[in-house]
Amino acid sequence: MPTPAAPSPAPEPDAQPRAAADLAAHEAAIVHAARALLASHHHVALSYSGGAESGLLLHLLHPLRDWLSVFWVNPGALPHEAEHVRRAVEGWPRFIEIGSDREAAWREHGLPTFLVPTSRVPELVGDGPRPPKPLTSFNACCWKVRNAPAQRWAAAHGVSLVIHGQRRGEGTGMYDPALVPPHWGPLASWTRADVLARVAHHDIPLPLQFAEGYPQSFECAVCPADLNSARLDFLRRHYPVEHAESLRRLREANAPALESAEAIRNALAAAEAATVDRAA
C-alpha cells in the first residue's frame, strides 16, 4: 500500500511568502497526492482546527469531500470559534466533532505550564507522596487533551491515514513516524507567510481573533500555558468571564515555578556571598 512521502525538512523562518505560482503549483500537487492516497487507503480523515493551515487544506480538498472524513477535537472552544468550525464544514457529509474533557485531564494531571518544577510532576517524585496540586508540561497537556482523543477516535473507526495542517518545525508531534495510523502533513515545508498568502488568495474565512492580532486557534480557551498578551487582550475584549478565569489559572499554574525560581535565586545569592566572605 502506498504511503505518504517523507516530509520535507523544516523551512527556514521567512518574512515573505514564496511566489504565487510556486505555491499554486504546490497546492495542485497536494490535491493530486490526496487523490492517490484516497485510492490506496480505505479511510482517510482530515484533522481540522479552524485555523489557517487546516482551513487551507479544507478548502483545497473540498472537491474530495465525498471520500474524506473531517474531524475536530473540541476541548472547550470559545463560542465564536465553535460556530466558525461548524459553518466551515457545512456540506461535508462526514464531519465528526470529538469532545474532550479538558477539566478532567487537568484534575488528573495538573494544569499545563511551560515551567514545571519537578516536585509537581507525579512521575518524577518516585515513591514520595503525590503532589497535592500536580502540574504538567504544555506539550504533554496538548497531547492528552487534543491528540489522544483524535487517536482513539481514529483507531475506533478504522482510519488508515490522517491528513493534518501542522507545519514542520512548530514543535508538533504529528511527524512522528511511529504514529498509528500514519499522518501526512502536506504543508510540512510551508512557512506561515506562505499559508496566509494562500488563505488570502482563496478568501478563506478565519475566526475573529485572526483579524484582531492573535492569528491562532484558541481551542483550549483558558489555557494557562499560553502567555500571549494578544490572546489575553482578545479575551478581555470579547470574553470577560474567560479572561478572568485565564488569569486565575495563570496565577495558579505559574506560582510554583515562581516560588522555585525565588528559592534558587536566594540559594545562589547566599552561596555567592559565602564565597566572597571566604575570599576576604
Quick description:
The chain is an alpha/beta fold and 280 residues long. It has helices at residues 20-40, 52-60, 79-88, 102-109, 138-156, 192-202, 229-238, 240-279, and strands spanning 44-47, 68-74, 95-99, 111-113, 135-137, 161-163, 183-184. β2, α3 and β3 form a beta-alpha-beta unit.
Going by helix content, strand content and strand pairing, the class is alpha/beta
Shape: elongated
Proportion in helices:
40-55%
CATH architect. name of the domain at 20-212: 3-Layer(aba) Sandwich
Could you give a short account of the major beta sheet? 5 strands, parallel
Q: Give the N-terminus to C-terminus distance in angstroms.
A: 75 Å
Spans of 5+ residues with little confidence (pLDDT < 50)?
A: 1-11
Strand content: 5-15%
Order of helices and strands: HEHEHEHEEHEEHHH
Give the full name of the CATH homologous superfamily of the domain at 20-212.
HUPs
Number of helices: 8
From the alpha carbons, calculate the radius of gyration and give it in angstroms: 22 Å
Structure report:
With 280 residues, this protein is of the alpha/beta class. It has a domain at 20-212: 3-Layer(aba) Sandwich (Rossmann fold). 46% of the residues lie in helices and 10% in strands. It has eight helices and seven strands; from the N terminus they run H-E-H-E-H-E-H-E-E-H-E-E-H-H-H.
Write the layout of secondary structure elements.
Elements: H1 20-40, E1 44-47, H2 52-60, E2 68-74, H3 79-88, E3 95-99, H4 102-109, E4 111-113, E5 135-137, H5 138-156, E6 161-163, E7 183-184, H6 192-202, H7 229-238, H8 240-279
Parallel strand pairs: 1-2, 1-6, 2-3, 4-5, 6-7
